[in-house]
Each structure stands twice: as C-alpha cells, then as structure tokens.
Amino acid sequence: MSKRTSARRDLAAPVVHVASGRDLPDPHTPGMNAPADCGVVFLHRPAPPSLRPFYTELATYEETGGFTIRQIETASLAIPLIISFGTPFRIRLGQTPIAGDEQPSFIAGLDTARIFIASSGRAACLQVNLTPVGAQRLLGIPASEFAGRMVPLADLAHPQISELRRRLEDTDDWNARLDCAEGFLAAGFGAAAAEPSHPLVDIAFGLIASGGVHRIDDLAARIGWSRKHLADRFSRAFGLSPKTVARIARFNRAQALARAAKRPDWADIASAGGYSDQAHMIREFEEFAGLSPRAWWLSLDKLGSATWQDPPGR
Q1: d(CA 58, CA 45)
Q2: How many angstroms separate the Cα of 181 from the Cα of each of 141, 161, 191, 241?
Q3: Could you tell me the strand order of the sheet in which 102-103 lies?
Q4: What is the spatial distance between Cα 25 and Cα 22, in angstroms, rounded to a whole number?
Q5: Which of these, 139, 143, 194, 291, could form a disulfide with 295 (CB 3.0-4.6 Å)?
Q6: What's the start-to-end Cα distance of the chain, in Å?
Q7: What is the 8-class DSSP label of residue 144?
Q8: What residues contact 271, with CB distance under 8 A and at least 6 apart?
Q9: What domains does the chain contain, in order, with CATH numbers?
Q10: How many angstroms separate the CA atoms of 172 and 41, rounded?
Q11: How much is the pLDDT for 310?
C-alpha cells in the first residue's frame, strides 16, 4: 500500500528489504506485478489522461507471504481511498502503530507527517490515488476538512462510495475490481473533465503540484490574486499552503529520481529536483522522511517504500 500506493501486526518474521533501486518494478506499467519474492501481488492502472486532474492511478494490493510488512509513507500529494478486503492495516501518523491502530477502509488527507504502516501479511485492498481536486469533487467537501486525518469510509456515509464497495465485494477477481472502480471513476469525473473552465484555486494546485511554478508570487500575479489571497484560498481548499505543496512536489520528484537510479548521485538529484544545493535537499529529506537521502534509499523495500523496524526492547 502507499498513501498515498500508496498502504501492517507484529509477527516474528523477516521484512523484505532491497539494497538498491534496481530491483524495483516500473510503477507506470499497466498490470504490473510486484517481484515474486516480496510476498505481495500488486496490480496497477494509471488514470486516463483526461481524468488525471482527479485521480492518478488505481492499484490492488494483496499480501500472500504471511509475514510482517512494515512501511513508511512519506508526504505526498495523493489522497488515497482504501477499500480493504483483508486484515486491516495498523497505521499511525508520526509514530509506529500499536494495537488499536487498525484502519479498515478509509480515506487519508494531505499531511506533511510520515505515516507508519504495519500489516500481518494477510492484508488486501484496492486503492484509488485521488488528487485533492478529485477528492473534493468526489466527496463534495473541501479536502481541508480531512487534511492530516484518516477518515473511515463508514464515517463518510457516502452513498456512491458505499455502493462501489458493495460491488467490489461481489467478486474476488482483482482485474474485475479494477474494471469496476475504473468505470465508477469515469462516470463520476467524466462530466467534470469536460467542463470548459475550472476554479482558479484548482488550477493553481495543478500548476504547483506539477512543478510548473517556480515562485508563488508569480503564480498569484498570473491569476490576478495577491499572494495572501492565494494562500488563504489554497489553505481553505486543501489544508496546506502553496509553499508546502511546492516543497512536497519537489521532494516527491527527488524520491522518484532516486528510486530510478541504481546508485543515486545525490548532487545530481538535488540539482534536477530543483533544490538550491545538496544540503537543502538533505534538510527536506530529514523533515519529510525522518532520514538522510541515502538512509531513506537504503531502507526501500521491493515495492519502493521505506521500511521501519521495531525499537529495541519492543
């Protein structure tokens, strides 16, 4: 799972690690399977181009190894909608999860904190990686209302999502589940994709998230707002400031470059990722990942997620 692909209990069994990014599957390959030895069956479908302003991908995740899997999801600009079919994940923001932290089906808002995830080896879910714009369209409420929180789908009481969940539970075929979810999203977002114009705050988010904005002042001037007005509208809509979203977008680009490298050149990644220098990138990794860039990269498992271990004596 990731929070983002984004989505674990405590059995005394090994966690799968990989020492470099060269064994990672290409995350943009439709129908991609995870490596056979990682204890997970993983399928992935990117969103069609017309719907990418609303969601970026669909994924299924099924653990088959029966051993503990622990992952850390760092800050991202995806809002994961998780529909669970197996043992619930244990999840906690900023700390390792404990008994009572089980999260079944839920949606998670934007956050800068790390998310610690643990599973028993028998978790299974379908995940929709929504954009904040798409989450607002789907739920009919601002993404700021669930920023920094995980909200159980039962608490949302959203009739369309409840119906989707029932339809997904009627089959145990993962490709059929992907087809069903794909049709649901196409129906839900199709009209929005055809709209001739979109709210300026949504356009601003898309530009910042894509890396198409170098200075927030310039973006505010382009859309005819003051920087303060842009920040106010942005925070009310998404729960984070434009500057924070720009920092997360830059951090995610650096992560993607590192995952694709057999042996990352961190100075080159800092430059290509848009950092002022390598020290700047290191500070951002330490804030968002809690690790130096190299320590984060060395902790990646075969699904490309950072991992964690229980503290001594636990």
Answers
A1: 5
A2: 21, 10, 17, 31
A3: 69-73, 115-119, 89-93, 102-103
A4: 8
A5: 291
A6: 24
A7: G
A8: none
A9: 21-193 (2.60.120.10), 200-292 (1.10.10.60)
A10: 14
A11: 63
Sign for the CA dihedral angle at 3, 48, 204, 251 comes to positive
Burial of 193 (0-12, 13-18, 19+ CB in 10 A): middle
pLDDT band at 3 (very low <50, low <70, confident <90, very high): very low
3-state secondary structure (DSSP) of residue 11: coil
Q: Which residue has the tokens 């719907």?
A: 51
Share of the chain above pLDDT 90, in %: 67
DSSP, residue by residue, 16-67 = P--SSGGGPPPTTSTT----GGGSEEEEEEEPPGGGTTTEEEEEEEEE-S-S
| Cα–Cα distance list, 65 to 24, 87, 120 (Å) | 18, 13, 9
Q: What is the pLDDT of residues 141-175, one digit of tens each?
A: 999 999 999 999 999 889 999 999 999 999 999 99
Would you place residue 37 in the very low, low, confident or very high pLDDT band (cuts 50, 70, 90)?
low
Map tokens 């199709």 to a residue. 190
Instruction: Provide the whole-model pTM.
Output: 0.84
Q: Residue 297: is its pLDDT beyond 60?
A: yes
Question: Can you tell me whether residue 119 is helix, strand or coil?
Answer: strand
Task: Average the pLDDT over 24-36 and give the result.
Answer: 40
